[in-house]
Amino acid sequence: MNLSVERVSLELAETFTISRGSTDRTDNVVVRISDGGHEGIGAAAPSTHYGETAATVEAAIERLRPTVEAVDDPFQVERVERELAHELGRNPAARCAVSIALHDLVGRHTDLPLWRYWGLDPDAAPDTSYTVGIGDPETMADRARRAADAGYGTLKVKVGTDDDRARVDAVAEAVPDATLRLDANEAWTPKDAVRNAEWLADYDVEFLEQPVPAADPEGLRYVYEHSPLPVAVDESCVTLPDVPAVADRADVAVLKLMKCGGLVEARRMVHAARAHGLDVMLGCMIETDAAISAGAQLAPLCDYVDLDGSLLLDDDSDPYEGPVRAGGHIDLDDQPGIGLR
Ligand SMILES: [Mg+2]
């Protein structure tokens, strides 16, 4: 196998703010693996929350280079992911970029999109939600209105501010027909989360995502037992062993390729979550379509999809284009591999 690595700089269309901070731009690392006249593409979208940056990804991939270049059969993705995880227990986004590129290569060798290779129904892919980042109430209402006008039926609203109620009221008034998901990114106390869930239940809210810190599993259980709204866990559900650990204190497991380290592992987590009675949402980081498209291939296995990472980018910023369309539809067609055009 031949491996090449390239950093891509992504500009967001608007500053993106969550309870932990703001972002205007981010770097992803694109990986290309070629073999037998075909080339697979994947990307890492590192998150400092999980200890990664573009620089750590590049260093990690250099450490993995001998293993990747020694792969003699790209179809052996399960074994390769295991070997990469064994070599670098952390660095999930770096490992994920290799996993995506190898899966894309398999798709190019077979001329099959991954959804078909895996036997999935392309029509079962839920539309993605679109995220409204934190701003003042008027700004958030305006963003929500523009998103609804662009065709998004479900909006994920970031909360965890000094006045979440004013913000959610403004959004709900601006887009009365939209379904809302709320994401506090760990910002609330358990008691505040339950109090907030009580007034949020008056709106069309599907669930509360990560209301309390991941470091407070008992607080999470308290919210789950007292909230009138379902509870989704993102920061509390990172890798496979987290799935059974959250099963008695959440309704929805939020999986992300960049947290778990690869497409084999993500599929394992989907099935583990189902076995534990959890619904599954597939989420993402701020990602180029060279990563988002891999998630899109998995979308038919999921109950909810939040794959808007590339939709939040400035139009000219992403060099790739995949199956996730403006307006939220995931268009799984016959493009091979991860479905890049
Ligand atoms: Mg989240």
Strands, helices and their partners?
Layout: E1 2-18, E2 21-35, E3 38-44, H1 54-69, H2 77-87, H3 92-110, H4 114-117, E4 130-132, H5 137-149, E5 154-158, H6 164-174, E6 179-183, H7 190-200, E7 205-209, H8 217-226, E8 231-233, H9 242-246, E9 252-255, H10 257-260, H11 263-275, E10 279-282, H12 289-298, E11 304-305
This protein binds magnesium ion.
Describe the structure concisely.
It is built from twelve helices and eleven strands.
CATH topology of the largest domain: TIM Barrel
Percent in helix: 25-40%
Instruction: Specify Rg, calculated over alpha carbons.
Output: 19 Å
> In terms of structural class, how would the helical and strand content be classed?
alpha/beta
- Across the major sheet, the strand order is 4-5-6-7-8-9-10-11
Order of helices and strands: EEEHHHHEHEHEHEHEHEHHEHE
What's the CATH class label of the largest domain? Answer: Alpha Beta
CATH superfamily membership of the largest domain, which one? Answer: Enolase-like C-terminal domain
Q: What is the end-to-end distance? A: 23 Å
Shape, principal axes of CA atoms: globular
Domain Mandelate racemase/muconate lactonizing enzyme C-terminal: 137-230
Pfam family, one: MR_MLE_C
Keywords: Isomerase, Magnesium, Metal-binding
Cofactor: Mg(2+)
Q: What keywords describe this structure?
A:
37% helix; 2 domains; 12 helices; TIM Barrel; 341 residues; alpha/beta; binds magnesium ion
Structure description:
Helix content is 37%, strand content 21%. It has helices spanning 54-69, 77-87, 92-110, 114-117, 137-149, 164-174, 190-200, 217-226, 242-246, 257-260, 263-275, 289-298, and strands spanning 2-18, 21-35, 38-44, 130-132, 154-158, 179-183, 205-209, 231-233, 252-255, 279-282, 304-305. The two termini are 23 Å apart. The protein folds into 2 domains: 2-111, 2-Layer Sandwich (Enolase-like, domain 1); 116-305, Enolase-like C-terminal domain (TIM Barrel), CATH 3.20.20.120. The protein is built from 12 helices and 11 strands. The radius of gyration is 19 Å and the shape is globular. With 341 residues, the protein is α/β, with parallel strands linked by helices. Magnesium ion binds next to loops. GO terms for molecular function: metal ion binding; racemase and epimerase activity, acting on amino acids and derivatives.
